Every structure is written in structure tokens, then in C-alpha cells.
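re: ur question from yesterday

yeah so i grabbed the chain u mentioned. its 287 aa long if i counted rite. heres the sequnce exactly as i have it in my notes:
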Amino acid sequence: MSELAKVKSSKLTFKGEKKTKKRKREDGEDGRKGKRKEEEKDPETWVLPEQPYEIRGPTFIVHPSDPSPICITFNSTSNRVVLNLLDKARPDDAAEPAAEPPTILERTPTDVSQVWVITRIAGSPTINLRTGTGEGKFLSCDAHGLVSADRDARGPQEEWTPVVLPDGMVAFMNVYEKYLSVDEVAGGAMTLRGDSDEVGFRERFWIKVQYKYKKEANEEEKQKKDGISDPVRIDEVGTNKLYQTWGMGRIVTSDADKKELKRARKEGRLAEAMLDRRAKLKSDRFC
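ran it thru and got these C-alpha cells back, copy pasting raw so excuse formatting
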């Protein structure tokens, strides 16, 4: 009688059909599993930023040149920005076959000279790029498009606005609303310039930041939206010391994008002025 009382499934089955075991799953298991996996990620893992505000801390900047990607590095001996090939050339008569090089998205820095420390300007979408080796010089660009890294102090010429493109690559716009680009000079040498009006192949870079700074940026952005956060500061000196232990198709930027960048820059300066005024009013109240 007890067997007859059992409720039978109304699902149709066919001869030879494999039976699948049902797996009980608690509510929210997928969410917890994803969160646990994220927490287990190494804080110093190099990842791609998805938003401009995630670009901060130690940064690896690579241009997808052919036949070898080019890395933006800094020579502390000559105090000059240098573009180095990531793949060393092999002689034609090499006995052993060359190993398959890693893809550009698998690349990570192998020397401190390849790392730039990025800090953000308070209340503004602009950033500063500082060398991760030597005395810590700022990347700057003058009105003629000449790029250098020989200044100890930051000013308007040391400000850059990162633009994350739809494919995940990044363009850097300077204070003159021109873009950083890779240029070939006499003799086939490569150099950086900052006088491009459009974002094309030469102006597009892959950049990687460390996961812990990307995570901090997202937490800070969330708290900003809730109105309960102060800007997080990057310890440039500590970061520099830490990392010294390391051994042409063209896409035109639309007028709407340029207007949006101008608006963001204007709003950033306005927000900074409002914060200063609010702090002054608060201090006057307690005086």
C-alpha cells in the first residue's frame, strides 16, 4: 500500500534514455561561488581595467605592434622614455625552434623599468604617470607633442585623460586634447609623441593593472555613489620601492566623444572647486 501511495513522475521517458541525477542547490550558491573565486584571486595578478577609474597603481603599458609588441619603459640612466620590443630577435640559423610567444593579453612586466605608477587627480578624470624606477619622474607632453619623463613635479603638462575604448584598449589624451601615439622616426626607431588628433592603431594601447587596485577602485566608486567615501591615495614612494625588487588602419574619434571628454574635464574641475568651498564653509562654522 505504501508503494502505491507514492506519487509517480508525470514526465515522459523513452527506452534507452539516460537518467540524469538532480543536484540540489541552495539559493545563492552561484553568487557565493563567484564571490569566493574572486576573493581567492592573487591581489598582485595583472588584469585589464574595464573603466577609466580602475586605471591606478602599478601599470603595464603595451602597444600591439607587429611583429613584436612594444612596451613603454623608462631608462633611469639616461632619464628617457624608451620603446622596447617584448620579443627578442632570434638568428636565422638558430638550431632550436622558437617557442610560441605568449599572446599580448598574457604578457606581464618582467622588469621594474616596464612599470608606471598611476595616481589620479582629486575630483578630476585625469591621471599622472610616474616612473616605477629611479627617482620617480612624471610622463609629460608639451605643446609641440614632445613626450618626456624628466620632471619631478606635476602640472598641466603631466595630466592625462585615459579613454577606455569599446574593445578594451586605452587611449591617453593630454591637456592639449591630443593623443599619445607610437611614431616611427628616421632609421626605423620608434618613439612616443603626443600630437595626434584622432584615435587610430598608433594611439591604442593595452594596459594592465594589479587586481587589488582595480578592486579598491570599484569599492571606492561604490562608496562614492553612496556618499560615504573619501578618495583613496596611492603610496607612490612605497609602491616604487616595492617594485624595485623585480629583476595602419585608423578609427576616428567622433565629435560627440570629444565633447564628452571636455564635459568630464569641466565637471571634474567644478567638483573640486565645490569641495574646497564646502570645506571652507565647514571650517568657518567652527571658528
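noticed a couple things. Helices lie at 29-40, 211-226, 236-243, 255-286. also The chain has a mean pLDDT of 77.
anyway ttyl
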